[in-house]
# Entry
Amino acid sequence: MKALDIEAVQAFVRVADLKSFTRAAEAMDSAQSAVSLKIKRLEEVLGRRLLERTPRSVRLSAEGLAFLPSARHLLAAHSGALESFGVQPRRLVVGISHHVVGAELPLLLRQMKDAEPRVVMEVRVATSRELLDAFDRGLIDAVVILRHDSRRLDGELLLEEKFGWMAAPDFVHRSGEPLRLATQAEPCSVRSMAVAALAEGKVPWTEVFVGGGVLTVGAAVSAGLAVAALGRRVAPPGTIDVGPALGLPPLPSREVVLHTGVSDPQGRSALRSLSAAIRSTAV
# Structure
């Protein structure tokens, strides 16, 4: 059997994780056709079909699922071999809005680490305003935030975050009573957006839970305590958008934007992988 091409193995792992040739190509700074060709040749060397392809999706075959752990070990060993020369690690400080990241955080971290194993990542999760302020003061290398207004239009658009009135399936709202709302503490742009929508729709509401982040607000929603304005992509698993059923006003979408001044190859590679991973979670 021929030796395996490391870049082909990397392409396979990227497609397996991101479930998309497009996103894998973006993460690898390559053309989609080149990624497809690498995987095709890898399959030919192995004599196995690793991926099941359809016009709308890509998923691991049984052989691909069996090969994936070994592929990860091979890439880790390759990275370890490169690190044997004692290259000084690059530290990358990335801020991510807690309205942008949810249960997919492990995927984002894995993609960044797989892209540049020698990069030491420092990830901060906070509000978009706090992160953008830290970025402008040079305290953070890159930030992924929600764009709430037109005062700042620079940055790379990653996706449109769609918001809904999220609640547990067994949440009960009694007619005539104020809507029970879970929010984040002020100042919070998503809280302001939700309150403005309710005011415009003349929907009475009462704040029954105030959290210190989307994780705590999501927990209150999952517990059936209240409804919350959350991005559908990052809402807790099992929650549903009760807006249409309760006649609540629609919420506007918001752009998720990457701001960075990073120019070195290692940092750019890690951020490309982060961007591709975030785009792969779009709903």
